[in-house]
Design goal:
Butyryl-CoA Dehydrogenase, subunit A, domain 3; 8-stranded mixed β-sheet; two-stranded antiparallel ribbon; 55% helix; 15% strand; binds flavin-adenine dinucleotide
Length: 378
């Protein structure tokens, strides 16, 4: 096993941090109206296209290590803006990887360069109304009619829904799994109002409906089988949520450490109270263990994808649950100031809740991990 970062990778993380920190200066990236969210996402994606970031884990990048390098870079972006992170990753890493994994040559040529150059924003419609893909097959259906396909279905919680240029809508065509590529403005694509959420306030999330929505048959991708398609989509989501957790823990830990050293009560900085030091030490332990777990998972995903499935579930649960604990302890260190809206720690706490719910939820992951441990899953 080798998941050390090279000098080149460390330099990339530092440059990425400088670039993003400069971009973030004076902006409210995590609490904005729709126009603001769209503007930030398009500017940031175009800026990231000038670095290797968008290509990682999609195309080989000289001197970099695919998903492993990406995991280090994820921490940087997620610590600067969780909202930008989730929006950029949905577009590049889920929409982009859908095309890279399941598109034919013509489809790859059509969408991949646009996504990787940041010219186009993608969204992914997977979850359906009252239906978690871990429990039942998808109900979204495409019917072939000559060289066209008519799609019907409803999707919910679609990140980038209100502003994406293209939607990858996951469903079935006949008895085959299919991914329908639908362009914004296509008749029959009905985008719902932006949903209000407790975290990720700079990301735009909405439901969508497909009603008499007709697209060219050439815009349908066919993954080999439904089981591996949903497992792969969940794997990618889980990886991204791990990356988000690392960024949230970095922000929460660093904010609490600075506060502990600078905030005084009774004439001395609160770090003088031993219990504050214990909290920081537990937070750092969870953060660093999560980093190692995420790196090991990334390394294993590239070397031994089969082995990585259950490992990713274990790591996803560990990282997302740790992110909530670290943010929660950080809020306690900040005391009353931690409970006031608008500070980085309370934002990390609100975002951390999403990691536990989305992708493979902690509950479902634990069932699957248990089944693997008992040899009931292969
Ligand atoms: C902010 C946000 C953004 C999202 N972005 C996207 C997106 O861009 N695209 C997309 O397609 N989806 C997206 N999702 C959906 C997300 O990935 C989950 O699929 C969705 O939140 C699952 O929620 P549900 O309401 O269907 O849960 P339910 O399935 O109703 O689960 C409710 C509870 O029951 C538990 N449970 C359910 N089934 C089992 C089981 N088999 N065993 C044990 N426990 C179980 C769950 O863990 C949970 O505690 C997003 C969700 C949120 C909140």
């Amino acid at each position: 096993m080798n998941y050390d970062f090279s000098e080149k990778e460390f330099s990339f993380f530092i440059e990425l941090h400088q670039l993003l920190a400069k971009y973030a200066e004076g902006k409210k990236l995590d609490d904005c109206d729709l126009a603001g969210s769209e503007n930030n996402l398009r500017q940031a994606t175009a800026m990231l296209a000038g670095t290797p970031y968008l290509k990682l884990a999609i195309e080989p990048v000289d001197g970099f290590n695919g998903l492993l390098t990406l995991t280090g870079a994820w921490e940087v972006l997620a610590s600067i803006s969780p909202s930008l992170y989730i929006s950029v990753e949905t577009s590049a890493r889920i929409f982009g990887r859908i095309i890279s994994a399941w598109g034919d040559d013509v489809q790859k040529k059509k969408w991949l360069p646009e996504i990787l150059s940041g010219k186009v924003i993608g969204a992914v419609g997977l979850s359906e109304e009252s239906l978690n893909i871990d429990n039942a097959p998808l109900a979204t259906l495409g019917v072939l009619n000559g060289d066209k396909v008519e799609i019907s279905g409803r999707k919910q919680y679609v990140v980038n829904g209100p502003m994406a240029d293209w939607f990858a809508v996951v469903g079935n065509m006949g008895d085959k799994p299919a991914i329908f590529m639908v362009e914004k403005g296509n008749p029959g694509l009905i985008i719902g109002a932006r949903s209000a959420t407790i975290g990720y306030g700079g990301a735009a999330i909405s439901p969508l409906e497909l009603k008499n929505c007709v697209i060219p048959a050439a815009n349908v991708l066919f993954p080999a089988d439904a089981k591996s398609m949903t497992a792969t989509l969940r794997l990618w989501e889980n990886q991204i949520l791990m990356g988000a957790s690392l960024g949230l823990m970095k922000t929460a830990f660093e904010s609490a450490r600075t506060y502990a050293k600078t905030h005084k009560t009774g004439g001395k900085p609160i770090i003088a109270f031993q219990e504050i030091g214990f909290k920081l030490s537990e937070m750092l332990t969870l953060f660093q263990t999560s980093q190692l777990f995420a790196y090991r998972t990334a390394w294993t995903s590239e070397k031994d994808p089969k082995e990585a499935e259950s490992l990713t579930l274990c790591a996803k649960v560990f990282c997302t649950e740790s992110a909530e604990q670290v943010a929660c302890e950080a809020m306690k260190i900040l005391g009353g100031a931690g409970y006031l809206s608008g500070n980085a720690v309370e934002q990390a706490f609100r975002c951390a809740k999403y990691g536990q719910i989305a992708g493979t939820s902690t509950e479902i992951a634990r069932v699957k991990i248990g089944d693997t441990a008992l040899g009931l899953r292969n």
